[in-house]
Amino acid sequence: MTKELKQEYTLRITQANKTQLITILYEMALLYVDEAAEALSAQDRTGLKNAVRRIQGCMCELMDSLHMEYEVAHNLLQLYLYVNREVAKAALHNDVESLEHVRPVLGKLLAAYKQIEGLDTSGPVMGNTQTVYAGLTYGRNNLTENAADPSANRGFCV
Q1: Which of 59, 99, 103, 120 could cross-link with 19 by S-S, CB 3.0 to 4.6 Å?
Q2: CA 154 – CA 70 distance, rounded (Å)
Q3: Contact between 114 and 23 (Cβ < 8 Å)
Q4: Could you give the CA distance from residue 130 to residue 53 in angstroms, rounded to a whole number?
């Protein structure tokens, strides 16, 4: 993941509600699947190992967020475990096909949560985050983001 993408995801996470956080995790997992596929094609074992570790980290976070008192949570858990198995198989056997099994599962879950995002009217999970305004000033060849009141207490509250 590039530095710019990390900054973008960091900003989105600080401003996201619960549903948007799940959507972000799916997006990140799909991004890491792409990185794993690239590492496999380049025969980069270290890159593959790192991408697999990150995918599994996303899956663990998604599993931890499940409320097991609901029946749908059991179905989602099975899907997350399936993704973990397929990703591990891809790493173990250098198998791109196993990664291709994961893409549609994560893609459909992402699409479903994108639809749910519009229904979630709750506020951001993190409080006391720095306000960022984009588009107020421009650099030579890029958009500059400005932070409001940079000297204020910015400790994150969850």
Answers
A1: 120
A2: 36
A3: yes
A4: 30
Contact between 21 and 12 under an 8 Å Cβ cutoff? The reply is no
| Region of residue 47 (phi > 0: left; psi between -120 and 50: alpha; otherwise: beta) | alpha
Instruction: Name residues whose C-beta falls within 8 Å of residue 112's C-beta, 6 or more positions apart in sequence.
Output: none
Q: Tell me the H-state helices in the chain.
A: 3-15, 18-41, 45-64, 71-93, 96-117
pTM recorded for the entire structure = 0.77
Q: What is the pLDDT of residues 1-49, one digit of tens each?
A: 778 888 888 778 888 888 889 999 999 999 999 999 999 999 999 999 9
Q: Are strands 132-138 and 143-147 parallel, antiparallel or unpaired?
A: antiparallel
**121-157 pLDDT tens trace:** 777 666 656 555 555 455 566 655 555 555 555 555 5
Q: How many CB atoms lie within 10 A of CB 44?
A: 15
